[in-house]
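re: ur question from earlier - yeah i can do the single chain one, its not a big deal. heres the input i used so u can compare w yours
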Amino acid sequence: MVGRAIVSMFPRLVALVLLAAPAGAQGWTKYTNSADGFEVEISGATKVQPRKGASGGEIRETLYIQEGKDFSYNVLATLHKTPPDFESHARINFRVTICQQGVPETVVEFPAGRAVEKRGTACDGKNYRAIARFYAKENWTYFVVAFYNSASGDDGGALRFVRSFRVLQ
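and the output i got, formated as tokens:
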């Protein structure tokens, strides 16, 4: 009798566990954009927003956004007219994260170009954290950032998103 009750409750327990899991823990798929030259793992629908470049040195710029209740995963892919200055573009992009506290940036292994990672806490004046990477390859730059509520427990999803990013050949 007890065994039958547990078996009948099993589908509801599985659904409860899936609903309780952080947003980043549910199904991940590879998102590839050949036109902008990258791939990344995502855990949900992604909005694509073509943008006009801010400095006039861009040919095109596209923002890819996946948002959830307690997180926002973003890739900003920019094609420049000429190869940009790595340090200044990385600094400008990291400033966008609006984090009050940060750790020094670390170099990320990226044989095709240059890449750095930076993390921040108390982002946007809230309990949000950020993990961000900036990549440069020839005339392309990519700013990959995961914002997440530190209370949500989505550290693993944010890390997975940022670390899954790859520049295509």
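The radius of gyration is 19 Å. not sure if urs matches, ping me
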